[in-house]
Amino acid sequence: MFIIDGHNLLHTIVKLEEDSGAISDLGLCRILSRYFTLTSEKGEIIFDGTGPPDKSGFDNIRNLEVSFAGLGTDTDTVIEDKISASTAPKGLTIVSSDRRLRSAARKRKATSIKSDVFWNDVQKQLSRKRPIKEPTEKRQGLNEGETEKWLEFFGFEQ
Prior knowledge:
This protein is of the alpha/beta class and 158 residues long. The chain is built from seven helices and five strands; from the N terminus they run E-H-H-E-E-H-E-H-E-H-H-H.
């Protein structure tokens, strides 16, 4: 399970990619959803603040739970609490370049990845060409009825 410091990752993306423009929290979540679908992983991303008033755009995000820290706390504190409360911290991967979170992960033996390293992996996975699924007929051959139809179509008599 990946736990992602949302604004830390957004800030990293803006620094890494000159043409990223102003990537939104929703846009980032859609990209991460595609990444987690391809890698068969699950993730949780947490942003500072309360987020947009209308959060319905986040409803169709798959393999990624989206939350906002809310008022009176921050993402770092929320993620630290999640690391502390985890019954299986070795199964967590914390995505943040923040020393405080990387240290908290290390103390509980969770994995931590800097945001730039994670983003490069996301980009690499999403840009890979996926093999096209071959039709089963390619390996199994046509059945007898299909073979007869093709022979008839091309004018071969049996």
